[in-house]
Amino acid sequence: MISAMFNRGSSRTLSRYLLRELVTIFGLSLVALSLLFLLILGIQAVQGGYSLRIILPWMVESLGYSCYFTVPLSLMVASTLGYGRFVADREYTAAVASGISPLSIARPMLLLAAALCVVGLATQGTVLPHAHYKQRNITRYLVKQLEHLGDSRKGKLQIDKEGGVVHWDEIEEGRYLKGVSIEKRIPLENFTSQVLLASSGPIEVPDAEPDLPTPPTKIRAKRATLEVQDEEEVILFTLSQVQISLPEPQRGYLFPKAGITKYDRLIDLHEIELKFPINEKAKREGDWTNSELNRKSVEYRQLAEEARETVTSLAAHRPPADPDRELSSEERAYEEAAASVRYYERRIGKAKGEIWERRALALSIFTFGFLGFPISVAFRHRHKMVPFFIGVLLVIAVFFPLLLLGESLVKDQGVPAPFALMMGNIVLLLFGLLLTGRVARR
């Protein structure tokens, strides 16, 4: 009994010792990988001509997105280096010889990995999607730099997702743009009354026809200043000595005739203010939370059912496989409904795939941490770095390729997302259990 009490006391002491070392290595690895991530972003910013002072808030917020990968990898580093040193220094042999079971030695990492895995499962579908969107949406931070331009020569800025762009020839005193040229798709009715009153005659504002494209209006100015207005989320341009070239109007919106845009109407102004919304990226599946993805899936499923009912009702009008034959209105409706069914089914598959990919990455926290102990013991080596490299090779050569393969199978082959995207975790966990059984039999 005294021996058993001694072993339990020694086991608890050893567990605290191992847990302290594993947490220390994990923390240092997480800091190192996060700094490496920031360094890469910083280099990209400097090479792109951006100021680190302006882009630093975006870099810091992007750290949340990096947790997708840095937390599992840091736990892999902690597990393989911690237990690798423990085995290489013969402490594992001494512990087992004193009667401490291998399970007791592995327990600290299992508890740490399980706790971090629970946190990962709770945040992968709630907090991290927002961090992912902020990491992609760099424009909202880069546009801040426009208020601190500094002296420089030619430059340009994209001001919307449809190709609107501002060019300038020179920046003076860090505030003034000289030789400004703006091209943006602007319906005529969106011009301010200042422009309409300053024109040589009344300008008829035609009825809008949103289905028709709008060619870009060309605006030139000798000088301009700009200001970022956070509350309205717009960029305010104040232009001096302005000339506006309006495209020829046709059928409501300003529409190019026969693919050729004519700029036959000019408006000269002394000064004008124009506001453009800050160019913000549209959200994708990876930017939505799990609850938003589930809600979208329900909407897509309802739309798919409606399209499927249309397909059923028009089944008698299914067109034959004859590409040269002109389709009737009923046959075209059938084709459109069938295409809608396929489209919404793909969107449902993407939404489910995104949810299960997040779960796979969260579970990889436990998988990577669990692997460290059996690898360190099964592949005993006097050099503590050997388990580390084996673990890294397994992650690079097994987990991420299987994750990418699972994404492809879900998207292209319709394989169930839970199985396809969990393959990497399943393979590594089975491999770890196999090694653990081998260690237990020794």
Number-wise, the strands total: 7
Query: Which sheet architecture does the biggest sheet show?
Result: 7 strands, antiparallel
Question: What is the end-to-end distance?
Answer: 25 Å
Oligomer: single chain
Could you spell the SSE succession in H and E letters?
HHHHHHEEEEHEEEHHHHH
Radius of gyration: 31 Å
Helix content: 55-70%
Gross morphology is flat
Beta content: 5-15%
**Which regions are unreliable across 5 or more consecutive residues at pLDDT < 50?**
1-6, 196-212, 250-260
Structural class: alpha+beta
Name a few traits of the molecule.
442 residues; alpha+beta; seven-stranded antiparallel β-sheet
Helices and strands in order, then pairings?
Layout: H1 2-47, H2 52-88, H3 91-97, H4 102-124, H5 128-136, H6 139-142, E1 155-158, E2 165-168, E3 170-172, E4 176-185, H7 193-198, E5 216-229, E6 234-246, E7 265-277, H8 290-313, H9 329-378, H10 385-413, H11 417-421, H12 423-441
Antiparallel strand pairs: 1-2, 2-4, 3-4, 4-5, 5-6, 6-7
